[in-house]
Amino acid sequence: MAISNKQRAAMAAVILVGVVAGAAMLFSGRESGHDDGHDDHGHGEQTTQGGTTETGTAQGGHNDASHGAPGKTPAASAPAVAGQKPGAADAHAGEAVKLSPAQLSASGVTIATAGPATVQDATEFPGEIKFNDDMTAHVVPRVGGVVERVPASIGQQVRKGDVLAVIASPGVSDMRSELQAAQRRLDLAQRLHQREKTLFEEKISAEQDYLQATTALQESQIAVRNATEKLAAIGAQRGGAQLNQYELRAPFDGVIVEKHISLGEAVADNATVFTLSDLRSVWAEFVVSAQDLGRVRVGQQASIRAAAFEAQATGKVSYIGSLLGQQTRTATARVTLANPDMAWRPGLFVTVRALVDRVTAPVAVEVAAIQTVEDKPSVFVVDGDTLRARPVTVGRSSSTHVEIVSGLQAGERYASGNSFVLKSELGKSSAEHTH
């Protein structure tokens, strides 16, 4: 039996209505199943926490799970965050240290208030303590000879004029002999001149004889002066027990830092046998790169800090090299440093801080307050009854205060003295949470 087009269209419409009705029934069934599962989950939580089965709606079960059992904080029943390690929240809470007033007093931790302070911008350079060349002498005999005695020893403190060594020198013997002969001739010339002067005044002798005697006297005087100055030029005395004995003496007060002479040794007139330095004044030498030359100038205040021990001194930049080294492209500079106690010894490595400008920082803390926590400069700030480590950004500094650029406000209270005790307590707390 042939089916007409109208019949075909009617059948297609019936099939389409059936498909739509089936889809609607399927969707309605899935929603009903989701609600039932949620109710079961809610009742299951009630059964686990309460220990007995309770009836109730899904909404009631949700409320019980949210608030938890009595005596527990919401944080204790909160689910773990994905990727978070166990104890991470405890470690974060360990950044705060709680100490009672008695514990604070016993530990020596002091509390101060952040506020404005005067700081000084500075540039630091590595340096080294060296001899002050203006107060250092390389002692030479100035005459050749053989060493007969060496009373001075290395490291000895000597005074100006003290005998360092005794040398037997033929040259000194010749100089003293020449002086003695000149003195004898001078004595004779003086007597002859007096005699000719008397005869001339009495009209007995001619004027020519008197003038010749005067000339001979003047020449004898010049010879004596010449021989005397030769001995003075080498630092030798005019007379002595022996004509050839030469005493090498200290040119000024100082310490013998080098000795290159021994008993019986033959020394040349230009050999350096002693190095003498007055260590009451030393140089702190450092190098300045080309980009820092504009920040360092002669006469500028500088502080010197030892690298090997706790010591600090101040001085002024006394010299900056005019030329840059061909290899290093740096200039040599130095600070003249007073050293009355001789604590600054040549060869000691130091840090030179060239102080630039003195300014007032709006927020500053004491130097002892800065501690490194998790590789960041931090300050322990008073937070209620606890002290919490807060990262800060530091700026310029002086010997007493450090500028705080960010992380701390003026008026906030912080731990200043002995703040390292808080850092130690923080480390102990972190170790306990880790274990």
Model description:
One of its GO terms (molecular function) is transmembrane transporter activity. With about 425 residues, the protein is α+β, with helices and mostly antiparallel strands. It has 3 domains: about 90-130 and about 285-435, Efflux pump adaptor protein, beta barrel domain (Elongation Factor Tu (Ef-tu), domain 3); about 140-170 and about 245-275, OB fold (Dihydrolipoamide Acetyltransferase, E2P) (Beta Barrel); about 170-240, Orthogonal Bundle (Helix Hairpins), CATH 1.10.287. The chain has helices at about 5-50, 60-65, 75, 90-95, 100-105, 170-200, 205-235, 420-435, and strands spanning about 95, 110-115, 115-130, 135-140, 145-150, 155-160, 165-170, 245-250, 255-260, 265, 275, 280-290, 300-305, 310-320, 330-340, 350-365, 370-375, 375-385, 385-390, 395, 400-405, 415. It has a 6-stranded antiparallel barrel. A 4-stranded antiparallel β-sheet has the order 1-19-18-17, covered by helices on one side. The chain is elongated and about 185 Å long.
What topology does this entry show?
Layout: H1 5-50, H2 58-67, H3 74-77, H4 88-93, E1 96-97, H5 101-107, E2 111-113, E3 115-131, E4 136-139, E5 145-149, E6 157-158, E7 163-168, H6 170-201, H7 207-234, E8 245-249, E9 254-259, E10 266-267, E11 274-277, E12 281-289, E13 301-306, E14 312-320, E15 330-338, E16 349-366, E17 371-373, E18 376-383, E19 386-391, E20 393-397, E21 401-406, E22 413-415, H8 420-434
Antiparallel strand pairs: 1-19, 2-22, 3-12, 3-16, 4-11, 5-7, 5-10, 6-9, 7-8, 9-11, 12-15, 13-14, 13-16, 14-15, 16-21, 17-18, 18-19, 20-21
Helix pairs in contact: 1-2, 6-7
